Amino acid sequence: MNFTRWSARLPGTQRRAAARTDDLVTEDRLSEGAVPAARAEQLTAPVPAVDELPVREVLDRVPALVALVHGPDHRLAYVNDAYVVAFGLRPTGEPARRALPELDEIGLLPLLDQVLRSGKPRTVKSRKAPDGRSYTFTCTPVTEGHGGDGGVLVFATDVTDHAEAAERLRASERRQRETAVTLQRSLLPQELEEPDDLRIAATYLPGGTEAAVGGDWYDVITLGGGRTALVIGDVMGRGVRAAAVMGQLRTAVRAYARLDLPPHEILQLLDGLAMEIDANQIATCAYAIHDPNEGKLVYASAGHLPILVRDESGVVLRADEPTGPPLGTGGWMHASGSIPLGPGSTAVLYTDGLVERRDEDLDEGIAALERALAGATGTPQVICDRLVRSAGVTAEHDDDVAVMVLQHPAHTGPDGDLFRNAALELLGGVEAAPRARAFASGVLTSWRFPVELHDLGVLAVSELVANSLQHGIPPMRLRLRRTDRRLIVEVTDGDDHLPRRRRAEPGDESGRGIAIVATIASNWGSRRTPGGGKAVWCEFVLPKG
Length: 545
Hints:
The protein is of the alpha+beta class. Helix content is 34%, strand content 26%. Strands 1, 2, 3, 4, 5 and 6 form a 6-stranded antiparallel beta sheet that branches. Strands 8, 9, 10, 11, 14 and 15 form a 6-stranded mixed beta sheet that branches. Strands 7-17-16-12-13 form a 5-stranded antiparallel beta sheet, with helices on one face. The chain is elongated, with a radius of gyration of 40 Å.
């Protein structure tokens, strides 16, 4: 092949060729300036032009792989020594598909067609060749000096070290992400608690492979007395640190929930704790309490997205204010609000990964979720999966997502016989105690409880009513409730002093009522009620079958 007939169409080649005569500096011009004579002699030495260099010798010594093909079928014209070392001798004159099978294997031949047609160079980065090494290929168009078909100069640079380093980095990032995902999932509830009056399902989806794991979490906490706490939150930031903060907040929520405080007081405690964990880390959180006797969700929000509720008729409601700033900001008094959640209703708690998109307003995402919820039916898990699909969440989603769906089923037919309520206003003085015992005995008999459970329930009613008559103030009320799993006895009064279990001395005339209740019942507790007053309750697990 005559290389003097070819010239690479590279940027600057023509400029260098046109300017080479300007590089010759004459003695006259040097003598006119301040350049010393000895230096002028050096500058006047002839500099060989690029066209005068022995091209083949240069290309043979280039450490990169070089191949030259010409014509529409890319017949091989030349390969340098580095190419021969990498892939062996190659027959010239043959089409590239036969002469350069390694280029065909890595899919480079269509690129040669593009370069030949467009007359513009193309580059593909880090392709792994059959020899096991990685190369970056640059294909540059060339033209023959006396006309004829054009050709393509293939220049391959060995980037194996860089590719292996990049792969090690990606593997390290994958391991870190897997560690964060494992930590995140281990900190989430492995099994959701199952309240008597709610059916609940939840889903957590980490962000795609290019996104670090975040701090989304959810939880379900049975408070006793038929009440349930529902929590969802999102720690700002990504990675193991966000997951670790999330774990601390979730543990704290479970501990604070045992105090059975109103939602806004729980958030006040969490706000102070978040500042102690990390003053630079903030989180959003929504905490709600469901009481089947009230038919509503009482909630508080620390910068979190609004709860959505679809009522029995299919109308979707959005929880409005109050919403305070995120946890960790400090200096804010949170407040509680409420939204109806009667029998037949479905509620959705979620994090921003479900509704927030870079190319649309957040309210548009929430509105789309409302429309999806309006048409979603079935079990909580079915609804949960449908909402995730309707939001377009995939394995490559750029943010993690947490969704919790809860239903308050309407109990009808035979199932309705397993869920009963009965209440009695405790009017008058000491005579209220025998009336309460007689009322409880009649109700428990009508509910066909076994004799042993009947007697335990009447004893619990007697002790709780006596405690309220002695230490509480009107109004007083007795409520009996049965579910498919337990019997709940609750007495409310107007005094907000919470009873505590204590050990009565042999000579004490009082102080044994709560101890007796705690001994005979499966669980007991007390809480302050909105507007003042308290509720003291206990529950008995029903025998199976």
